[in-house]
Design brief:
The chain is 18% helix and 31% strand. With 202 residues, it is of the alpha+beta class. The chain has one domain: Ribbon (Umud Fragment, subunit A). The strands form 2 sheets. Strands 1, 2, 3, 4, 9, 10, 11 and 12 form an 8-stranded antiparallel sheet that branches. The chain has a 4-stranded antiparallel sheet with strand order 7-6-5-8, with no helix packed on it. β5 and β6 form a beta hairpin. The chain is elongated. The protein starts with 17 loop residues before the first helix and ends in a 6-residue tail after the last strand.
């Protein structure tokens, strides 16, 4: 048998061991590109726009339960002020390594009074005091306390929805705006309770 020495019409010869090696290198390079691009997109969102948090404890029941997975909007408060009724995540004033979740009750410049199981707001529109109607509270809740607090220009008075099991501004005072991480805007887990989080309307 004779081999044809004319290579013009013959198929190129390949090393069967070389092809798989090239495919592996291509796969690795494509994977690296996907990871880099994903990080370039996800990291800015994770650290500057949206941040996930797990609820720990019962201080916001029944609206927010232990183990709920929430997404926190970190950018809205750069363009608008926090509002009464917003559910926020913030650094605990007495230990900034911890994060708390509560509802905003009092706004900067207001005076907040807690007495006789009521929260009363004093501001320019309600100089005689406005008793806050909190329909989101569970039946049987009581707002214990006897206090009168004047808020500075950057301070917020916060309370847990589960007043009987909440450590909040009644105990350790108001929250400065610089400690606020953001507003809770989406419950992502459990799936059976997946929904957008709206602030309370008074």
């Amino acid at each position: 048998m004779m081999l044809n020495e004319n290579t013009q019409n013959s198929a190129p010869l390949t090393n069967p061991r070389q092809a798989p090696k090239n495919e592996v290198l291509i796969f690795v390079w494509e994977t690296i590109k996907v990871v880099v691009i994903s990080l370039a997109i996800i990291l800015p969102i994770r650290y500057y726009l949206v941040q996930p948090f797990f609820v720990k404890g019962a201080s916001m029941e029944p609206g927010f339960e232990d183990g709920d997975y929430l997404l926190i909007d970190e950018i809205s408060y750069r363009f608008a002020e926090p509002a009464r009724g917003d559910v926020i995540v913030f650094r605990y004033p007495e230990d900034r390594s911890q994060f708390f979740i509560k509802r905003i009750i009092g706004l900067p410049g207001e005076t907040i009074e807690v007495k006789n199981n009521k929260v009363i707001i004093y501001n320019a529109e309600s100089t005689e005091g406005l008793v806050l109607v909190e329909d989101y509270l569970d039946t049987g809740q009581e707002t214990f306390g006897n206090m009168l607090t004047r808020l500075d220009d950057n301070e917020y008075f916060v309370l847990g929805d589960n007043r009987l099991a909440s450590s909040d501004s009644r105990r350790w005072g108001p929250v400065n705006k610089i400690l606020i991480t953001g507003k809770a805007f989406l419950r992502a887990w459990p799936f059976t309770r997946f929904d957008k989080i709206e602030g309370a309307v008074y």
